């Protein structure tokens, strides 16, 4: 029972974090937090990824997948987003397609977030 609750908590938390990374730049009050969250995500993917030997590494994915394995799930994909998309849709999407879309989506959100966080500072300097 506890593992089922943990599974649901991870789905809600991790999915919310992903949505915040992708969409958090929309609201002025969350733009700086969004940029910081994206930078932490990139640091996890690349810096922690280099340390553990898996680019795209996310500790939340590892912890959630540990719980899913205790619940009897096997053959889990290498990424949480693939797991989530497959779980929500019932389809088995290509790992490469999901990984590419994930990387490009976060890169686009980063560029938008960075732009929206830096432009006001540049405008203030010019004034």
Keywords summarizing the entry:
127 residues, 77% helix
The overall strand count is 0
Q: Give the termini distance in whole angstroms.
A: 59 Å
Tell me the count of domains.
1
Strand content range: under 5%
SSE series: HHHHH
Largest sheet: none
Low-confidence stretches: none
Structural class of the helix and strand makeup? mainly alpha
What's the mean pLDDT score?
94
Radius of gyration: 17 Å
Shape: elongated
Number of helices: 5
| Range of helix content | over 70%
Describe this entry's structure for a reader.
- The protein has helices at 2-23, 31-52, 59-70, 80-89, 95-126.
- The chain is built from five helices and no strands.
- The termini are far apart.
- Helix 1 crosses helix 2 (31-52) and helix 2 (31-52) crosses helix 5 (95-126).
- The protein has one domain (2-126).
- It is mainly α and 127 residues long.
- The mean pLDDT is 94.
Short description:
This protein has 127 residues and is an all-alpha fold. The chain is built from five helices and no strands. The chain has one domain.
